[in-house]
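Incident review: delayed structure delivery

Summary: a single-chain prediction request sat in the queue longer than the usual turnaround. Root cause was a stuck worker, restarted by the on-call engineer. No data loss occurred. The affected request and its eventual output are reproduced below so the record is complete for anyone auditing the incident later.

Affected input:
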Amino acid sequence: MSRVLQSFQSYLRRTNKPLWLIMISISVYGLLLVASVNRALTTNYFKTQLVAVILGYIAAVLLTRLDYREISNYWYLAAAFCTFLVVYTLIFGVSATGSSGVNARAWIELPGGTTFQPSELAKIGFMITFSKHLSVLKKHELLQHPLFVCSLGLHALIPIVLTHLQGDDGAAVIFFCMFLAMSFAAGVQFRYFAAVFGAILIMAPLAWKYVLADYQKKRFLYMMDPEADPLGLGFQQIQGKISIGSGRLWGQGLFNGPRVARNTVSLQHSDFIFSVAGEELGFLGCSLIIILLFALLIGTLYCARKSSDDLGTCLCFGFFGMIASQSIFNLGMCLSLLPVMGVTLPFFSAGGSSTVCFYLGYGLVQSVYLYKDDSDKVKLRL
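Output delivered after worker restart:
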């Protein structure tokens, strides 16, 4: 028993302890919000979220104990497994058909009636494979060669296109943001970023006409004027803003929000969990969410700075890009600054698949910090 305690103490000494404190604070806060929403729902999302958080912490600790460089050596397994899952879901997955033409085939049904969203795991797989790709190119000084830079774009297009075909364009946008963050960290020249954004501007009219579905176009239009369809596509954002504003400075008290109890805002347990914080904990509660997520991002950048190699830096920036982009898009949705796109608030929104996978990404960041001095490696044997 004493040896186990000594090993655990040694582990804690070498990890980023402030980052653990931030992560624990986020987990507790997120669980409290989901518990508050749970009273208004027939499905016990709190139980699912609690199990996901526990599994996530176990996975994060185990992953932290493994050297991220050893994990990256098996990038081809991560690529093959994640691609298989996403393609399988595209063909045999469960469809979620909603109003206004929404039709996303992004889930796999598991025994017991639970579902799993492979695109969430694919984000972690992309962190590993794309970091390895970037580090190899940088090692051989190939990042300045246009052909090899194009190979990075093709790499990123695989998950982007597959998730778009699933109907999960929110995930496709997150993959794109991760691609930008990791490419920037590796030192890809700005002219290539300019070329990417130039191509987007040129292709935007074609995408609007041929790629976006009618309901997606309407979401962009009603984002600017949700009152134009107050009982349809504008309903969720209008009610979300009312809930956030009703809390004022201090909120109406945790577990005391009347709009939360009536489940006024649809998907308030997941995509619109921020509205729960606004109503029940007010401006201060909303500010705390932003502060905690910002602290997590700063801690991630600190781990990237301490990394001993480009691989570790890119992994950290992959996690940074994922958390930052999802946070911005989710808060933008809740405040009617961006269209509704099915993006959850990291670590706060209820969702077993996304929660566990977020912790996997966090475990990789802690692994980068733990092995920054090339000591005490734990190797994988397959």
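Verification: The chain has one domain: 16-370.
Action items: add queue-age alerting; document worker restart procedure.
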